[in-house]
């Protein structure tokens, strides 16, 4: 199977320089497995009860786009996150894992990091 040529930019944690990530095929015990390109979802502002639904819809759309999703949530411009926002992050992590994919939280702000740690969710929501 030929390697895909479509490129998408993926923002690395801690403000590192972006690097292109492409789909590639890896061999596994059951044969060749095609990895999806990274889908980067950027969220700005407050991730609260009024706006969490928009991120959930974006995550669900990204999940529908591929078999083994690879989703990066860029949270570098999130100024506030409450329990509704946190529930969307947990939803995303669980749904991505159910499909054998990868979820990466990128550029996590101190407020969001503290919320994840205080709730004991750093095992489910891996922090950079």
Describe the structure.
The chain is α/β, with parallel strands linked by helices. It contains 3 helices and 7 strands. Strands 5-6-7 form a 3-stranded parallel beta sheet. The protein has a two-stranded antiparallel sheet with strand order 1-2. β5 (38-47), α1 and β6 form a beta-alpha-beta unit. It is globular and about 30 Å long. The N and C termini lie far apart (32 Å). Mean pLDDT is 79; it is low at 1-30.
Number of helices: 3
Largest beta-sheet details = 3 strands, parallel
Q: What is the global morphology?
A: globular
Contiguous uncertain segments of 5+ residues:
1-30
The gyration radius over C-alpha positions equals 15 Å
Structural class category: alpha/beta
Mean pLDDT: 79
Q: Tell me the β content.
A: 25-35%
Measure the end-to-end span.
32 Å
SSE layout:
Layout: E1 7-10, E2 19-22, E3 25-28, E4 31-34, E5 38-47, H1 52-64, E6 70-81, H2 83-98, E7 102-106, H3 110-118
Parallel strand pairs: 5-6, 6-7
Antiparallel strand pairs: 1-2, 3-4
For the structure shown, list the relevant keywords.
alpha/beta, 3-stranded parallel sheet, 3 helices, two-stranded antiparallel sheet, 128 residues
Can you summarize this structure?
With 128 residues, the chain is of the alpha/beta class. The protein has 3 helices and 7 strands; from the N terminus they run βββββαβαβα.
């Amino acid at each position: 199977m030929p390697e895909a040529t479509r490129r998408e930019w993926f923002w690395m944690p801690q403000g590192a320089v972006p690097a292109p990530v492409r789909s590639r095929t890896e061999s596994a015990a059951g044969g060749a497995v095609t990895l999806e390109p990274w889908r980067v979802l950027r969220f700005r502002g407050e991730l609260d009860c009024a706006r969490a639904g928009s991120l959930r819809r974006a995550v669900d759309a990204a999940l529908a786009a591929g078999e083994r999703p690879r989703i990066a949530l860029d949270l570098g411009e999130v100024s506030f996150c409450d329990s509704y926002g946190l529930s969307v992050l947990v939803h995303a992590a669980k749904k991505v894992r159910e499909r054998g994919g990868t979820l990466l939280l990128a550029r996590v702000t101190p407020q969001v990091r503290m919320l994840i740690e205080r709730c004991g969710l750093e095992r489910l929501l891996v922090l950079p």
